[in-house]
TrEMBL record:
<feature type="domain" description="Endonuclease/exonuclease/phosphatase">
    <location>
        <begin position="8"/>
        <end position="227"/>
    </location>
</feature>
<keyword id="KW-0269">Exonuclease</keyword>
<dbReference type="InterPro" id="IPR005135">
    <property type="entry name" value="Endo/exonuclease/phosphatase"/>
</dbReference>
<protein>
    <submittedName>
        <fullName>Exonuclease III</fullName>
    </submittedName>
</protein>
<keyword id="KW-0378">Hydrolase</keyword>
<dbReference type="InterPro" id="IPR036691">
    <property type="entry name" value="Endo/exonu/phosph_ase_sf"/>
</dbReference>
<keyword id="KW-0540">Nuclease</keyword>
<dbReference type="Pfam" id="PF03372">
    <property type="entry name" value="Exo_endo_phos"/>
</dbReference>
<dbReference type="GO" id="GO:0004527">
    <property type="term" value="F:exonuclease activity"/>
</dbReference>
Length: 240
């Protein structure tokens, strides 16, 4: 593996086949995309040709979760327990660390929608999360915690911290959950409705290796998606 690994997560807000070129500036080795088409069922030749090294999951061929990697990156799918949660893709990157891609879905669940899906997934897979990076759209923030619910955003953050996994954004910017100054999502693409709901969480050993962490800005990306892409660059030199 080269010394620096460039990872992007982005909810593309659909029609990813038409938005590939916008990500070229990141020169990402690995791209985690929410709301993207299944390449195996897509008709767009350019998209099918571009997506040569990928994993994808979803029930709607036009709107699922995908991991796309450069040809020199080995992505090995991992057979983790799913429990019918939506949507997660666990994989092994170059046999060095685990990457868990996430798009926390409502899943038509009256009790465990969105962050509840991640909470349930964690209960099944905590023992798998050593040396891991979690990337994706959680559709959640501590501001939506409910006092009588045991699977709040705060509960998920606490359980991850018990595994020595924490938010890269909050570590870098020294901000408390719920007080984020840099939004990742604008509801209905409205600048007056900013929220921080997309994340990179990583095991403690990665935090000292972060070379760059960048959230896209609304003036550049809001015309393309209601979510901003996030780039994380990790120094992998000497990592074992």
């Amino acid at each position: 593996m080269k010394s620096d690994l460039r990872i992007v997560t982005w909810n593309c807000n659909g029609a990813f086949r038409k938005k590939l070129d916008f990500l070229q500036e990141f020169d990402a080795d690995i791209i985690v995309i929410q709301e993207c088409e299944n390449p195996s069922e897509a008709k767009e030749i350019k998209y099918k040709s571009w997506a040569k090294n990928y994993l994808w999951v979803g029930e709607n061929k036009n709107k699922g979760l995908g991991i796309f990697a450069k040809q020199n990156i080995h992505i090995e799918p991992l057979n983790w327990e799913n429990g019918n949660t939506k949507y997660f893709i666990p994989c092994r990157i170059n046999n060095e660390f685990n990457l868990l891609a996430a798009w926390c879905h409502g899943a038509n669940s009256p009790t465990f929608g969105y962050i509840g899906q991640l909470w349930k997934y964690l209960q099944l897979n905590k023992f798998n999360l050593e040396k891991s990076i979690i990337a994706g759209d959680f559709n959640s923030n501590v501001i939506w915690d409910k006092w009588d619910r045991w699977w709040n955003h705060s509960d998920v953050v606490r359980e991850l911290e018990e595994l020595n996994i924490s938010s890269v954004y909050h570590s870098k910017y020294n901000e408390q959950p719920g007080c984020e100054q840099n939004p990742t999502f604008f509801l209905q693409r409205n600048l007056s409705k900013p929220y921080h709901i997309d994340y990179f969480f990583a095991s403690s050993e990665f935090h000292t290796r972060i070379l760059q962490f960048e959230i896209g800005t609304a003036n550049k990306w809001l015309g393309i998606s209601d979510h901003m892409p996030i780039l994380m660059v990790v120094d992998m030199k000497g990592y074992t």
